Amino acid sequence: MEIAGYFAAVLIGLTLGLMGAGGSILTVPVLVYLFGFDPVTATSYSLFIVGITAFTGSISYFRQGAIKFQTTLLFVLPSLLSVYLTRSFLIPALPDIIFTSDFFILTKGGLILIFFALLMIFSSLSMILSGQKDGENPSKETPFHGGLILLIGFGTGIVTGFAGAGGGFIIIPVLVLLAGLPIRSAIGTSLVIITLNSLMGFSGDLFHSSPDWAFLIPFSLIPVAAIFPGTLLSRKIDSAKLKLFFGWFVLVIGLIMLIKELLG
């Protein structure tokens, strides 16, 4: 199972390099089901892994001048606040047993995995729909919606903090539709936002636990290395077909997770 987990780490980095989003949605399931970590620890480790990998991926976009720092600042200020509050206060405040009956027991870990499964389903549908629309011509001018970006940034921070996912599948469409960024700038800017949000969330966990650095650092190096060939392949592979394939894959995994957690 652990060998499969390390192969999955390669897939995480490749996908993040290919699409700028999506790969991080696999990190928590890999850590929980293949390495046996509890969900709270898995979301914490996922934040570190995703943050380091996204930072590595953003370097090439920075060199190309494809990162819009003013938009980054607008999105990231409220999201940094919400992700830190979520990891530092909301997650620790949740009771270990949230709900119990004769037929069902909902634990903190179970709630996180159910939320994460729903997030995977939403993410997969987003990728499937965007893959279908990639061939369409975008509008020439998109009005800038600063207030909505601030609000969605705050919400994205909560999602990132609670689920341990980067949220690129939310961030990229927001940057394209509400900030008017071209897709390449949206991907580069998204990677910077994911980096800051993820590492801020992970820093909030350091007050409550001590990470297993002997596992975390070597594991993180695998997707970091894989993101480089992923970035190179992104120039040769049809992004629409890739999003459709990966979207359906994530949808199946999310549905399996949801059924497993609900049926115990």
Using brief descriptors, characterize the structure shown.
264 residues, mainly alpha, 2 strands, globular
Q: What can you tell me about this protein's structure?
A:
By secondary structure, the chain is mainly α. It has one domain (2-263). It contains ten helices and two strands. It has a two-stranded antiparallel ribbon. A hairpin with a 4-residue loop joins β1 and β2. The chain is globular and about 55 Å long. The model is unreliable at 135-140 (pLDDT under 50).
Summarize the structure.
This protein is mainly alpha-helical and 264 residues long. It has one domain (2-263).
Write the layout of secondary structure elements.
Layout: H1 2-19, H2 27-34, H3 39-63, H4 69-93, E1 97-100, E2 105-107, H5 108-133, H6 146-163, H7 168-177, H8 183-205, H9 213-233, H10 239-263
Antiparallel strand pairs: 1-2
Helix pairs in contact: 1-2, 1-9, 2-3, 3-8, 3-9, 4-6, 4-8, 5-10, 6-7, 7-8
- What structural class do helix, strand and pairing data support? mainly alpha
H and E string:
HHHHEEHHHHHH
The biggest beta sheet is recorded as: 2 strands, antiparallel
Distinct helical segment count: 10
Number of domains: 1
> Which band does the percent of strand residues land in?
under 5%
| Helix content bin | over 70%
How many angstroms does the end-to-end distance come to?
21 Å
Within the largest sheet, what's the order of strands? 1-2
| Residue runs with pLDDT of under 50 for 5 or more positions | 135-140
Please tally the β strands and state the result: 2
Calculate the mean pLDDT score and round it. Answer: 85
Alpha carbon gyration radius = 18 Å
Shape: globular
